[in-house]
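Crash report, auto-generated. Payload:
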Amino acid sequence: MKIFIRKAAACAAGLLLFLPMLLPTGADAASRLEVLVTTFPIYQITRNVAAGRKALNIVLMLPSRMGCPHDYVLTPQDMGRLARTDLLIINGLGMEGFLDRAIESAKAGMRVADSSAGIGGILHYEDAHNHAQEGHGHDQDSLNPHLFASPGLAAAVALNIAGELSKIDPEGASIYYTNADLYAKSMNLLAGDFAELGRRLKNNRIVTQHGVFDYLARDMGLEIIAAVLSLEGQEPSAAGMLETVRLIRELKVGAVFTEPQYPSRISQTIAREAGIPFAELDPAATGPDDAPLDHYETVMRKNLSVLEETLGTR
Ligand SMILES: [Zn+2]
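Recovered output after restart:
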């Protein structure tokens, strides 16, 4: 036991020696501001905006591999985090229905930043589809919250986040705005590439898995004829599937696109039945825990080639 304690003490002493080098300059770990970001895509944008600034401890709330939290329920661990958080950054537009109860657990004075605030041209979920789904009459007013799958809107989100981080950490403002400008530039280049591909595609009619690509489709001039799943991820009935197959044939749809975040079996069945190709597009709603800062761009560039290969160009 004694030996163990001595070893532990020696280890601690060793750690102490190294600690000053590990600690960020200008702010020790204890004085860092706690920034909690609900979803993976917004977390990645926040990390890009805050790159190089050590005054913030940026934490992702939901598991990075979970995808859209359309039916998420808060855990006790989430409540604990909220009690320590200085700034909570959300996707907004109704994505975080689970937060209603959360505010009770929040640290006094916690700020909530809606990363979609002030962004224009918001789509209603029902605008784009789904003509084939029963229960079509459900909440006509639900807004489509998937801004992040459009690079042009990801740029706008980054600029919003720079403003919010600057409010809690004014000394870092120049870093945040410089990073956000650079990020926005690369996102706008990416958006330009998507729009350019959209003009060259042989067929611009597609079926998607859920409403995640509505904004990207608008950027590209793609027409989404139907989404196979409801916003909450609910699967269609046999009649709903047949109606989608009928629409695909009638409107000569080019392809069905599945997403890695949802099971693709039904979408594949619909594509086979209708005799059109299917392929996977990743909205980058998920990623590894230690995703590189350019994860989104890498995934989106791959989507560009998948769209080009699957729909063909003129
Ligand atoms: Zn979603």
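Post-recovery validation: The beta strands are 33-37, 56-60, 87-90, 111-114, 205-208, 223-227, 255-258, 278-280.
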